[in-house]
Amino acid sequence: MAITDIKVYAHLTDTDVDLLGAEFDALRREIEEDRGARDARYIRRAIAAQRALEISGRALLLVAGRRRALRYAGIATLSLAKIVENMELGHNISHGQWDWMNDPEIHSATWEWDMTATSAHWKHAHNYSHHVHTNIVGMDDDVGFGILRLTRDEPWTPKHLFQPAANVLLAASFEWGIALHDLKLTKRHLGVPRFEIASGPHREFARKAGRQLLKDYVLFPALSGRAWRKTLSANTIANVVRNVWAYLVIFCGHFPDGAEKFTARDLAGETRGEWYLRQLLGSANISGGPVLHFLTGNLSHQIEHHLFPDLPSNRYAEIAVRVREICDRYDLPYTTGSLGRQYFSAFRTIHKLALPDHWLRRTVHDAPETSSERRFADSRWSGTEITTAPAGSGGYVGLRTALRTARKRRVTVVDERLVRTAGSDASAFR
Asked: pTM here?
């Protein structure tokens, strides 16, 4: 089951959690007070680079004709432009990361991004529903997006057998999946009946989706003259590339092993420190270099983004160094890994949870994708009791050590079972 008591799971006392929250608050204030010209310069350069890429990609497609090299270059450039606009610009500007500049062009209230979801719908569904209730089962609708079963807290039904195919479809059409997901949440928030299609949210969605379809699948192909079919296919490919990339980044940051799930019980009376702790334990990073970080919109620093969603994305790399130091002092895990590693564990969860629970070996308390504080109370994990010393005293032992010990003991238990099984099989032939 999901975590029901985050402090017990994290092996922290009330005082520890308050101190943790104070450290993160201090880090936030430090970055806020340091924002300035270099941050403004960064986002303006990112916008200029994205626009140059899009103009170059469109121009290459218009003049490509029968020349494959130019056409492929145009597709690659346009795909890159759409990725940067979606990840580094649209996502982060809509989070309000640059509102402090008071620039009406780069403001969350005015920016409309290049995808079918409306910014207004997305900001409610994502900035509020997801970032406030991160990974709380039954409250954060981004856990599986209503399509995939990603925790054993969601009961298995026969429809989940089709989950692997649904996952492929979601990746290829991610912008549409997000748009419809956000539309559903907006309607629910406004009290609009589910099947009411003449509502205000539906009209807003239709206008935005219509503009996107007109731009990519009518206007630019028409400008290509006789080569309209090739431009149409190029635009389609660029959109699919952007969709798959955004899907990969989101799934690697939210659903690999180590990104924990929580129950609504954790939300009752949640303190600022507990909120920080939930963001830390419910997110995962992607390791890589500056190019990868930029192409993910710096969401490769998903932990830092969930701790400080409205701080400038170009600061996440330096914030990450401080967050890791804090995790080390409190003996808390800092979940990170390569893009391939993170997606492999999410991919495994998607396919594994397509099956009924009784087909799976691990319990609902100690599975990689679904964990709770009871994993440490189970008799199989005896010996993982944690002794604590005041944080900062240099002798703190907590969750990271507990998880490491539990993994070692599980391997020992499995090895002992194998030895006993092998012994039994051998005795049968004596």
From this structure: 0.91
